[in-house]
Amino acid sequence: MDYNDYLDYEEYYPDYTSDPAFVACKDTLTRFFRRKLTPYYLTELEVLLEKQYFHWITYRAIKSLVSDGYLTEHPVTTKYGSPVIFVARATPQSTERDQITLTHIKSKVKLIETISKPEFTDVIGKHLQFLVKSELRANSFTIEAENSNEYRGKKWTRTGHDFDFIATHERGFAIGVEVKNTSPYIPREEFDIKLEMCMYLGLKPVFAVRWMPKSYIYEAYTKGGFGWLFEYQAYPLGLEKICRKVSKGLGLPTKVMPELPSRAQDIFSNWVKKQR
Questions:
Q1: What pLDDT was estimated at residue 9?
Q2: What is the 3-state secondary structure (H, E, C) of 186-200?
Q3: Any idea where the domains of the chain sit in the sequence?
Q4: Are the C-beta atoms of 24 and 60 separated by less than 8 Å?
Q5: Whether residue 10 has pLDDT greater than 80
Q6: In CATH, what class is 4-116?
Q7: Alpha-carbon distance 31 to 8, whole Å?
Q8: For the segment 180-237, what is each residue's pLDDT rounded down to a tens digit?
Q9: What span, in angstroms and rounded, lies between the C-alpha atoms of 178 and 175?
Q10: Does position 17 have pLDDT exceeding 80, yes or no?
Q11: 145 phi, psi to nearest 5 deg
């Protein structure tokens, strides 16, 4: 997970402990763990509360409760990527409680490792790209390039980033599309770079993602772009069993999607109709 957003939050709001959203989130988490003894990992909690609080606010509230001694951290190193941090309500030490916590963590880590395999993430990523590509074509777009940073003779060279799709509409405007089929937000640094790339190449930015904060959606809108949200991580047909396990065992919003949600289709079509 990339924590650039959380660092940005501290810069933007140095005294974030007085931020009403931070205070409210901390209270929400306190009440939540008052009823729960089982461990949760950070992404799980961030996604669980994302309709109320930005991920970085939830993260800071969790870290504050750890500092207060209300929660205890349990970091675990997995086979893939960075360590996963679990938190649980601090309780008087007991061998039985420690064993229960460890058992829950092991069960979740096993599932996290399954969905973190490069071959698995590749399948999930390509599936959403396929759905997005189909919907672009259904809305009269022509795919000009894939995995590209070039459009009409101009090339982005400041960083090594590119777009999943660059597409032109029959009415003449063009878009740069970034597709993210992940539980966490698109990292802030990448989001900013993609906006800059669009301005440089003359494209409207489109972010096709499971979820993103309202502030990101607004920033994309001010650049003539669109935040295309699907709410669930999209799984292809054939992965129903693992989809159910992830949803139930990790509390992450996953759904088998043979096509994009109808509401997401309608909202995108309405946005396209308004473009020039």
A1: 46
A2: CCHHHHHHHHHHHHH
A3: 4-116, 118-274
A4: no
A5: no
A6: mainly alpha
A7: 27
A8: 999 999 999 999 999 999 999 999 999 999 999 999 999 999 999 999 999 999 999 9
A9: 10
A10: no
A11: -160, 155
Fold of 118-274: Trna Endonuclease; Chain: A, domain 1 (3.40.1350)
Rounded Cα distance, 97 and 68, in Å: 21
In the prediction, which pLDDT does 4 show?
46
